[in-house]
Design goal:
It is a single chain. By secondary structure, the chain is α+β, with helices and mostly antiparallel strands. The protein has a single domain (4-72), classed as Nuclear Transport Factor 2, Chain: A. Helix content is 22%, strand content 55%. It has one helix at 4-19; strands at 25-32, 35-46, 49-60, 65-72. A 4-stranded antiparallel beta sheet has the order 1-2-3-4, covered by helices on one side. The protein starts with a helix and ends with a strand.
Length: 73
């Protein structure tokens, strides 16, 4: 059974690999309908300008990413 700290590590590793981001802020981790839902922000470089992007990542009970959504703040 996954714990919130493990879910945080899975999501941070996923974002580091897919967004090349290092300063990831996890805001909330909640469990709903057998999925862990993680909300937070990460930095991105948009044509030489630093921006932050919010994310929502859903992780199943086996630690596999089910969905991920990103949007500019």
């Amino acid at each position: 059974m996954l714990e919130p700290d493990s879910v945080r590590e899975i999501v941070c590793k996923y974002i580091k690999e897919h967004k090349n981001a290092s300063d990831i802020s996890v805001i909330t981790i909640e469990k709903k309908d057998n999925l862990w839902i993680v909300h937070g922000t990460c930095p991105i470089d948009l044509e030489g300008h630093p921006w932050r992007e919010s994310f929502k990542v859903e992780v199943d009970q086996k630690g596999k990413i089910q969905t991920s959504r990103f949007r500019l703040l």
